[in-house]
Specification:
This protein is α+β, with helices and mostly antiparallel strands and about 300 residues long. It is built from five helices and 16 strands. α1 crosses α4. The longest helix is centred in the middle third of the chain and has 30 residues. It is elongated.
Length: about 300
């Protein structure tokens, strides 16, 4: 059937552009399939953002590398001044002098100062004082970065791998399920769902917001099945599975909630393509009461579905 777009429900200003693309606009993890070009090679304004968003192994490796390089640099400067300007127990071989210079630099940079190596004279004392100042500044910077990484609120919301078109009330409904994987409390959760369809007449993408059965819940202690009832005025009314595949449909999901632990709003994004929409199935229940009267939520059953007629 020919795809028809209800002009009163179409919103072309979603922010993802209307030009047709061979790939989905939004990945499952919430990242965008956008490559930006024309940027300067060095972008100092992105340094802090990069440091607090990079992976923990890379971040810790960078700190360790910076520590080693700084100590190696100052050790070479101490060797240039001459290790005879230091009180130390080591010998005069190059390896022994280099080892003493490196460990003296490490003790000075961290302000530990065990005392078995100490500078004598102005050049060595001045350089060690400069390194102590650099150590204080660098560790203050590293502490700030660690605080920024730990204090940055991050959503740990997981969405079902597939969305469903399943019987709902007297008709059909488009639905997916989400849970909070953390034990923190989320309140005032809200979700927005938009469908993107390829208009074959113009080879551009058109966007339409999907009205939800419930777009906001005040408390989010367990799971939430987000449902768009496919009524007569729905942008999906009359469309079949083949129609969604032909239109390369993509359902873009934006969810936000207030994190009671950090007292900040968190956001999560994901999307479902037409291939990730399962027809003729429904979600199995995730929650059940236990003998003590508590509600037990099985997180492993997030993607559990069963066929329906």
């Amino acid at each position: 059937m020919a795809l028809r777009f209800r002009r009163t429900q179409v919103n072309d200003d979603l922010g993802l552009g209307i030009k047709a693309s061979a790939r989905r606009s939004l990945n499952k993890d919430g990242s965008f399939n956008v490559r930006r070009v024309g940027l300067p090679r060095f972008r100092g304004y992105e340094l802090y953002h990069h440091l607090i968003t990079m992976g923990w192994p890379s971040f810790l490796a960078l700190l360790f590398l910076g520590f080693m390089v700084t100590n190696a640099l100052f050790a070479s400067l101490y060797l240039g001044i001459g290790m005879e300007h230091f009180t130390r127990p080591g010998g005069m071989a190059l390896a022994e002098r280099a080892m003493d210079a490196f460990f003296f630099s490490a003790q000075t940079l961290t302000t530990v100062g065990y005392g078995h190596i100490s500078p004598n004279g102005f050049p060595a004392s001045a350089l060690s004082a400069l390194e102590s100042l650099l150590g204080l500044l660098s560790f203050a910077l590293a502490t700030g970065l660690l605080y920024g990484r730990f204090s940055r609120p991050q959503a740990c919301l997981r969405f079902s791998c597939q969305a469903l078109v399943a019987p709902y009330r007297e008709g059909l409904g488009f639905m997916f399920r989400t849970v909070n994987m953390r034990s923190n409390q989320l309140i005032e959760a809200a979700v927005n769902v938009t469908v993107s369809l390829l208009d074959p007449a113009t080879n551009t993408r058109r966007y339409a917001a999907l009205p939800l059965e419930r777009a906001t819940i005040h408390l989010f202690p367990s799971s939430w099945t987000v449902v768009h009832p496919i009524y007569a005025d729905s942008p999906l009314a009359g469309l079949t599975e083949a129609d969604l595949l032909q239109a390369k449909a993509e359902f873009i999901v934006l969810m936000k909630a207030f994190d009671d632990t950090f007292s900040q709003t968190i956001y999560a994004r994901t999307s479902y393509t037409a291939e990730e929409v399962l027809w003729g199935h429904r979600f199995r229940p995730m929650s059940a009461p236990d003998p003590d009267g508590l509600t037990v939520v099985d997180m492993a059953a997030l993607d559990a579905v069963e066929p329906v007629s």
